[in-house]
Amino acid sequence: MPDRPAKTAKSQRTRAAILKAAQELFAEQGYERATLRDIAARAAIDPAMVIRYFGSKEGLFARATAFDLKLPDLTAVPTDDIGATLVAHFVDVWEGSLSNGSLISLLRAAASSDDAANAIRMIFGGQVVPMLARVVPPMELPMRAGLVATQIMGLAVTRYILKVPPVVAMDRAQLVKLLGPTMQRYVVGKL
């Protein structure tokens, strides 16, 4: 019996090492170019262990990019502050205390992988849409959610993937000030 906790602890360390290596390589190389052999090498394990723990590259990718956006409760935010709150939150998701790089690697991979694109849609549909549903009339929800996605994804692509210099140069306060009004309109403004 004493071996069980040691094996469990080792198993957890191995799983964590694989996930960390996968997140790093998916972020650096994208889904298509990152190989299970490279991930295993970075985690300092045998490639067969990746399959043992995650079943497949797709399974590993799904787990490595599982992401809780920790979205704010918009019913607790003053209506006039919703746009700024969302922009600030997403900047924090990408580069602040909530960031681990997985969302950016997932977004990068979505351009060439149906699995990654589907994962983005699942995150959006499972987290962002329900958050918006608390403050947006049901008949307007699909359109407003789609518009919010254009702002969120557009900022992420230009700042973190394409690294467009003027967008990269803006600090958090500038992004909130300049993009907040657009997000505000998309969520609760007149369309």
UniProtKB/TrEMBL annotation:
Q: Which residues form the DNA-binding region?
A: 35-54
Q: Where is the HTH tetR-type domain?
A: 12-72
Matching entries from InterPro entries are given as:
Homeodomain-like_sf, HTH-type_TetR-like_transc_reg, HTH_TetR, Tet_transcr_reg_TetR-rel_C_sf, TetR_C_16
**Record keywords, A-Z:** DNA-binding
The regions listed as transmembrane in this protein's record are none
GO MF terms, alphabetically ordered: DNA-binding transcription factor activity; transcription cis-regulatory region binding
Entry keyword Nucleotide-binding: no
What is the protein name for this chain? Answer: TetR family transcriptional regulator
Q: What is the lineage of its organism?
A: Bacteria, Pseudomonadati, Pseudomonadota, Alphaproteobacteria, Hyphomicrobiales
